[in-house]
């Protein structure tokens, strides 16, 4: 999956957190960690508009300067060599990393994670999975603390919080309100006449 345009501040923070989950907060090439050196997100193919998750990696300032003048092919080889040296995470570990973003109960199997579009065959979390996890966590936290939210506010505030379209959030809300295994209920408030979202009884996480 490829994201168009440069990373905005909101997207940058989301991708930074996702890279920490995938690689740990360390330079892909030399392995140095903060606070010794600050990490920045580097585009491996040198295309700042290609925000495919597999095209992003952490670099410290020194290594960033080291590869800045390299051609795309040479740069990619450096990253591949570093990845092989570090061993990397297996698909199952990345499925578990995603599980930690969305729930405290159990972990996802790698097969199920791939089938649901959470990670690809290389074990990389998809951008849509990251956004979905962020929205579920945000909405659940809100409902636990406040008790309810109007459907409209969930779309407006959620789109701003997760930096995604309301069309996407409607799909997430529909899945979360599944009558069999959903975690929320949608109903009309008799006092205000507005459509509201409530945490389903017995669902607190």
Overview of the structural elements:
The protein has 205 residues and is mainly alpha-helical. The chain has three domains: 9-88, no CATH class; 90-125, no CATH class; 131-199, Arc Repressor Mutant, subunit A. It contains eight helices and five strands, in the order αββαααααβααββ. The protein has helices at residues 9-23, 61-68, 72-86, 91-102, 110-115, 127-146, 151-162, 166-176; strands at residues 39-43, 56-60, 148-150, 184-188, 195-199. The strands form two sheets. A three-stranded antiparallel β-sheet has the order 3-5-4. It is elongated, with a radius of gyration of 19 Å. Residues 84-108 have low confidence and may be disordered.
Q: What attributes does this structure have?
A:
205 residues; mainly alpha; Arc Repressor Mutant, subunit A; 3 domains; 3-stranded antiparallel β-sheet; two-stranded antiparallel ribbon
- Taking pLDDT < 50 over at least 5 consecutive residues as the criterion, the unreliable ranges are 84-108
Note the overall shape. elongated
Mean pLDDT: 74
- Counted by DSSP, the helix tally is 8
Let me know the largest β-sheet: 3 strands, antiparallel
Strand residue percentage = 5-15%
User: Structurally, how many domains make up the residues?
Assistant: 3
**Structural class label:** mainly alpha
Distance between the termini: 29 Å
Q: Into which percent range does the helicity of residues fall?
A: 40-55%
Encode the helix/strand succession as letters: HEEHHHHHEHHEE
Radius of gyration, CA atoms, in whole angstroms: 19 Å
């Amino acid at each position: 999956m490829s994201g168009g345009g440069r990373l905005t501040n909101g997207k940058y923070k989301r991708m930074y957190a996702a890279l920490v989950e995938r690689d740990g907060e360390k330079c892909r090439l030399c392995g140095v960690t903060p606070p010794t050196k600050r990490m920045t997100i580097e585009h491996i193919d040198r295309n700042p508009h290609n925000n495919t998750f597999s095209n992003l990696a952490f670099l410290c300032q020194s290594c960033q300067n080291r590869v800045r003048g390299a051609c795309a092919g040479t740069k990619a080889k450096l990253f591949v060599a570093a990845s092989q040296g570090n061993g990397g995470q297996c698909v199952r570990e990345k499925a578990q990393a995603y599980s930690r973003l969305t729930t405290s109960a159990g972990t996802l199997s790698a097969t199920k994670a791939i089938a649901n579009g959470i990670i690809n065959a290389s074990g990389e979390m998809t951008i849509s999975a990251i956004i979905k996890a962020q929205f579920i966590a945000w909405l659940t936290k809100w409902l636990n603390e406040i008790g309810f939210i109007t459907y409209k506010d969930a779309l407006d505030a959620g789109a701003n919080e997760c930096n995604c379209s309301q069309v996407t959030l409607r799909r997430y809300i529909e899945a979360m309100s599944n009558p069999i295994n959903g975690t929320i209920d949608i109903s009309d408030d008799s006092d205000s006449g507005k459509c509201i979202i409530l945490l389903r009884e017995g669902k607190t996480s």
